What we know:
The structure holds two protein chains of two kinds. By secondary structure, chain A is α+β, with helices and mostly antiparallel strands. Chain A has 33 helices and 53 strands. In chain A, 36% of the residues lie in helices and 23% in strands. In chain A, strands 10, 12, 15, 16, 19, 20 and 21 form a seven-stranded mixed beta sheet that branches. In chain A, strands 22, 24, 26, 27, 28 and 30 form a six-stranded antiparallel beta sheet that branches. In chain A, helix 4 links the parallel strand 5 (90-95) and strand 6 (122-128). The model of chain A is unreliable at 210-230, 418-469, 532-623, 893-905, 980-997 and 1196-1201 (pLDDT under 50). Chain B is α+β, with helices and mostly antiparallel strands. Chain B has one helix spanning 31-50, and strands at residues 5-10, 16-21, 57-64, 67-73, 79-84. Chain B starts with a strand and ends with a strand. The interface between A and B is large, with 43 and 34 residues.
Amino acid sequence: MATFLPQFQSIKSSFAHIVLSVEDVSDLWPTIKKGFEERLPFKRASLNNKTRNPVLVDELPAEFILTTDARLRSRFPQEQSLFWFREPYATIVLVTCEDLDEFKNILKPRLKLIVQNDDREWFIVYVSKAPAHNDQATKMAKKVFAKLEVDFSSKKRERCCKLDIHGPDPNFWDDLEGKIMECIRNTLDRRILFYEEEIRKLSEQRFMPVWNFCNFFILKGNYSGDKPCDCFWDTSESLAFMFEVAHLHEDALREYDELELCYLETGKQRDFGGMEKGDDQATLLDSGKKALAQIVQDDSFREFEFRQYLFSCQAKLLFKLKRPFEVASRGYSFIISFSGALALHESMLPFCMREVWVITACLALIGATASNYEDGLAAPDVEKEFYRVQGELHTLCHTKFMRLGHLVGYGSDIERSPVNRNDMLGNVDKRKVFCQENLSQSVDHHKEFYIFLHSAITLVFPCSASLSMLPWPKPAVWPPLPPDASSEVLAKEKMILQESPRLKHFGIQRKPLPLEPSVLLREANRRRASLSAGNMSDLFDGRPSCPAWQTELLNNTRGCILLLLISCVWDMHAYNCIKMENFLDSSQTSVSDSSGTPSAVQRVSNVSMSRTLSSPGNFDGSIDRPMRLAEIFVAAEHALRNTISDAELWKSLSSVEEFEKKYLDLSKGAANNYHRSWWKRHGVVLDGEIAAVHHKHENYDLAANLYEKVCALYAGEGWENLLAEVLPNLAECQKILSDQAGYLSSCVKLLSLDKGLFLPKERQAFQSEVVRLAHSEMEHPVPLDVSSLITFSSNQGPPLELCDGDPGTLTVALWSGFPDDITLESLSVMLTATNSNDEGAKAIKSSEAIVLMPGRNNITVSLPPQKPGSYVLGALTGQIGQLRFRSHSFSKGGPADTDDFMSFEKPTRPVLKVARPRSLVDLAAAVSSALLMNETQWVGIIVKPINYSLKGAVLHIDTGPGLSIAEKHEIEIEKHEFGANNTDHSDNPPDNHSPVSADVKQLSLEDGKINLPDWTSNITSVLWIPLKAISHGLAEGTPAGTVSQRQSIVDGLRTIALRLDFGVSHNQTFEKTVAVHFTDPFYVTTRVADKCSDGTLLLQVILQSQVKASLTVSDAWLDLQDGFAHTGKGDGRPVSKFFPLIVSSKSRAGILFSICVVDTPAKDGEELDPISVLNIRYTISGDRNLGAHSPVTKELTGPENETDPLTFRSALVLQRPVLDPCFAVGFLPLPSNGLRVGQLVTMKWRVERLKDSGKDVDSDDVDEVLYEVNVNSENWMVAGRKRGYTSLSTKQGSIIVISILCLPLVAGYVRPPQLGLPDVDKANISCNPPGPHLVCVLPPAFSSSYCVPAA
Amino acid sequence: MASTACFMIVSKNDIPIYEAEVGTVPKKEDAAHQHQFILHAALDIVQDTAWNTSAMFLKSIDRFNDLVVSVYVTAGHILSFVMSD
């Protein structure tokens, strides 16, 4: 085999362009070469791809080679089919001729000979040497060219073009390029057809059941002795390469993909490969690393090299296509699958070959893709995916590198955190992801191909779990310890002994996560022992545990000598134990191995076990004796040295420092790439790993920064278990960096984590740190958010409701997450009004120090008066020592809220409601009816609290003018009962209305103030105040028929100004002025009932009761004014005695007095008494709840004195009789047609003398009577005399009629003129009937001046 | 046969809201936190794949040693993880 392989590879490496041959018939090439080569490379070439679709190639490199060139001449025809891609794609025949005869005789036959080979694409370039000015030569050249065209061009195809050396046609070059392209296109099409046909034939045969490489070889032996797979491969790759040369990269890539599939389908190759020196370095991006001839094995290629070779070809094409992201994703997938393939052959390969190969492959891929990738090259989501794959490559490399580190004993230098096993995750189904992505991305890719590829990969590597589990290497034999390694073993022993488990800050003791796949000691010895004596297998997996006393001793002493002693004893003990447990062990090994998670207890004992066995003197290098851990490290190191050929990689494993450096590089690379992708969690988690290394190296600043990122992620997403792992580390860094704020915050966060995550002792340590810092001298007092630790809520139940202006007491429930009691120096609760946005929260401070117990605490704070509105708890602030803390979170711990665990943010419930200002109390007069004037009366004031307690209320009483408090008397208070007045009449009036009932309490007035008793605080009560209204005037009686009572009502009104101070701290005030009506008991009217003929007048006095009480008149007498006298007995008493006369409420009674008129001569210097006075002695029987009642003083004297009469005096004015008319004046009726403006009307009055004038009456004596017409001149015009004398007989009954002509001036109801007799006293004129008050005057008629009647 | 299984509900803000060890193997002290760790890292992958598929049950999206993580994604993006061996 492989005759042509080296040749092919050399051609591949040297041929990167298309060849165009030049047949220089007339030795013209040196002259025109320059012009031709200037056209290279061709721009915008149009070629056909495999599916015959035109593809535009931007730049097509090519080379012109003379047919006489050695490169073309030396080829054998049989090679052509395989290496056809390097054959010329076009033949350009260069000719010149200036003579027709010469053309016909010499040139034409020669040309015919040249072009007769149909395989080649050709065309002729005729070069004219004729100078432009030589017309003859030019003409000849044209003739020759025309002849040439006739002979060689056809209708279908132009094969000739003309180049004028002395003045080339500008179109010539385009024409030339067009012809070259046509040739190339045709050649390419033909060759593609040929290759396809070849491949099809070979493929068909490959799928036949009897097909094998040998048969194929025999059948197709004519392929110049080459072997079939090569033929196939050569053909395919030749095609692929041809595409590549033609810059049809997509097609080339597709060919390579198909080639890979075909290769994988051929099944298992006999020899895997990978055994040669330097094979540990991946060549997946370097196709020329190894000659193809070297990787041929029997009838096929070795898988190890060939698959890498194929991938490198694909990668090269993808880079050319500017798709580095695809290289990365394909590469990652390739590494995974190839790693699986390596695992299958692990027993054959050098020790850890697989790990080393993966590391180098990842590094190569990372380097190549990153250098070929520029930001913005792809769409954002592709870019993110690219970075994710880069991250994956880094972590894969990182994992494998760590595995090597473990093998050589650097395991203790790797932080065992959950973090650094992250890379094991997410590997499963990456193939699927890859395929899905490619399916979605490959717009111009064959989807079927990827599906096919996917299924192929799945078939070969059914599960990538083998990688995710990351087992220890499984060589056929674990490398033995080389001789002369005792010093190295000692060094490793020492290293192991110096290991000390790092104690976490706060004294936290945690077992490491069970993340390692298995125990190396056990694994290494198992591999070795399987080849040695059977009963020694599975030795020393640490199962027999070390006795406690020895462990104790181990922990306390580190002396090697002592360890030696112990190990000697222990060796014997262990040996016996192992023998006994051999059976058990062999059955459990597989379980432990597969799970890969031995308990931490086991691991701890492993370490101690390995230590005890680390006795330098015991070592003899025998294969039968189980190796100790240090020996395993040394043996692995030696074996790795043989495996690893890359000096850089070996350097990274040569020392702990270098190892850590590389480890950090890889971690950082992974983290950075994950951050740039959408796998932020992976990135942050790797940051934690980097932080752990910085932490270990005391780069606390860097460590803290990174830890903060990790903690922020875990805290933000609420993964508390994970946070609990990392947060103590952050706290430690912050403490060392003196970042007090950060440290306190971390401590608080630690405390607020789930209680189960830390031991009580540890939590107490956190608290003591907080308290210590709070009470220490802090340079800068730090505010601290303890929202997660101290939560609060309002107490259950309705919110506290306060009236406007009232202070209150607010109870808040606080949940303390501190493990112990903690003293708060102060505590403030912020109240936020829900209805107003402009107003900030108000802090309500609790002044005294508070000790918070773990769990729920009830805190009471006093609340000053707040503005009306609804308030919610805003935040909690306070001080612990010098630490100002603040909490924003509502408690989740309330018992009623536990069912609401889904919501973290509880809807804010109002904790306080301050009502809008409203009337809290009302004061009103208890009685609306009138009370007795000038007597001490109980004035009831109803004090009515309106849903508000009047506890401690004080009432200020200020009486207005004409009213005074009878201070001798106590003030009474009783419960007010609505409707009691009406209902209690029939039931138990004495009980309910007795002033000494049980409900009545006596109060005293001090400085005009009354303190209301507490029992009245919530009930409506009546306050009875003894008041006396004083009126100095005498009541006036009025003649019957006149109404003047209104005046007396206004006179009887008195006011009491009341002010009530109440509220929790007398902060509320209510003021009201209450009007009370006082009146006399009677309203007196008089009339003369009868006038007897003897001059006796019967005077009727009518008494109208004005109070709601029963009045009993016991006596009445009248003190008459001068001019009147009593008839009869003269004692002033009424005519008949019906006393006692009872006048019930609102009723009237009358008393008759018999009087007569007497003439009383006026005495000198003495004025006549102008008024009469009516005296009434009466008693009153009333209820203070209804109105007027017995005066207070009377009540106090007791019931027996109830009849003590009161005296009521009323003035009466009596007038002498005046009914003595002399004249009667009557208004005569007006005309019936009515009055009209402008129409004269005669007003008539009749004046009749009613009695004789009293003078000496003569029979015909006539008296002159003065009359006068009073008229409003605006309404009436009087035609005639308004005033004058008229004569009237002095005899009784004489009559005259006075007529006055008047003219109404105004329409409407107007007062008519009045006739008066000025000389006669009004008392002597009787106007019965009186004249009309108003007369109706119609509007004026239509003007007659202008309207002539029709008649 | 003893099995390890862990069930966890994660809210749409990636906050674990319910966790239960439902396997027959007694819970180890350190295992719970390991489970959380595995499931937390799987969130990245869930986020990745959940939007690329119409399926609500994402079977075996991740794996750690012999523990397989599957997740049911509700329409509201509440994740129900099941991890079992």
